[in-house]
Description:
Elements: E1 2-6, E2 11-16, E3 31-41, E4 52-61, E5 69-74, E6 84-87, E7 94-101, H1 103-110, E8 114-119, E9 128-131, E10 133-134, E11 143-148, E12 165-173, E13 178-185, E14 190-197, E15 205-209, E16 217-222, H2 225-232, E17 236-242, E18 250-253, E19 260-264, E20 279-285, E21 290-297, E22 302-309, E23 321-324, E24 332-338, H3 341-348, E25 352-358, E26 366-369, E27 371-372, H4 408-415, H5 428-433, E28 438-442
Amino acid sequence: MRGQLLQTNRLYSLLSSQNVVPSIPSGVLSRGVLLANYTRFADPNDVKSPPDETLAIQVDHTIFGNPESAALFQGGTGRRSTIVLSPVENPRTQIRQQLNITSTIARDVFSQQSFFQVSSNSFSNGEIRGQLLPVDPIPPITHSARMDNAQPVPPYSPEYGEHPRGCAIVTIDCSRLFMEYLVVHNVEGAVRAQAGVGQRGESGVTAFELASASSPIYGSRLISGSERSALFGWQMFFQVFKVGKAEPVLRGQLEADNDYFAYLSGTQMVPPVTTSAVGCGSFDLRPDRVVDYDISHTVRNPSAVALYRGKIGEVANVGHIDALFPTYQSPLHGSDVRLSSADRTSFREERTYITVQSSDYPNGELRGQVLRLLTAVCDPTGGDPAPAQFLPPDIPASQQFGVASLIPELYYQEMNRVSPASLVAPHWLALACAWVAVVVLERRAL
Length: 446
């Protein structure tokens, strides 16, 4: 037997008898794995009809004999529910089915308010159950940084052929001051990366070392109260050092003045693709409809970077392209993209995404939804307000699809009233580093 590790699914669930509510005898050892992909298709020529939304599921389990029933239910972890969102037609040992769902069900799925359950003759109320979780969920970003060689103190003078640049995005769990970060840069020979405290134009002081130096940098840290104050006072920065240089060659201040961000990954493609590449970007939409952008990615052989109209999970439509960026090699930065009035509305309502195409993946190797930064002050007394409702009447994508372990309103409520151990979703960066992969088993004659 052999299994190939691939990054081809957007959702997963680990099914177990221990998850069934109410509980069943502990001696039951049935298990299962669910893998799923969500697809949304909106006909551009039919604006009145709702979009077609599907959830393609693949379930393998160990229940002995033929299962009695299987279905997707509404409900959170550990909660009993009889609300069936979508039943399965033929609940055999291997389930392969495409479920037709609604936008409401999709919100339940991506906000982790749905579970899959398989019942048997012995346990009619469920023998195995598992919560649906997003693979590599989009993090609830509160700060971003545009990194360049002009911000170090003193500024770094690039050598011939150098163009040091990068981006950083940060998410924070206010309940325990747990910060996670992603940094993407193009510094060759990077030997050290660190976080510092200080205003723009000040050399500042070192706060802590980042997890690594080579791009991309994933890391996490429990920060102190003074570091929290620096972060939310826009006085924290990231900087990168290279071999042979005593001073930093790249620096970026963590701020919230660029209202939009994008986290680029292969899992956001429709369908997802297997790639180690990643990217991030920050954006500012000006009153004259010009998009000021700064994007860094690690795609090896890019061929195009484009801006499309569409929600998370929506199939790309060449007729919905907003703009083709003038260059595709990382880094990209400029203020040379102007949107139409309709495209500006889509951008504001988080119905716009970026793709990075490559020679290996001509339809796109990376994709990232352009979302607003979430508003938070991380009040240590627990007084954080829920994030603002940005643009009614359409619910922004950042409040629909896997942007946090819960939808943002619930996420911030939970952060202020429950212990971190009770939050069931894995951390964004842990999932970004360790894929939840589909293993295809093949029997071969030796």
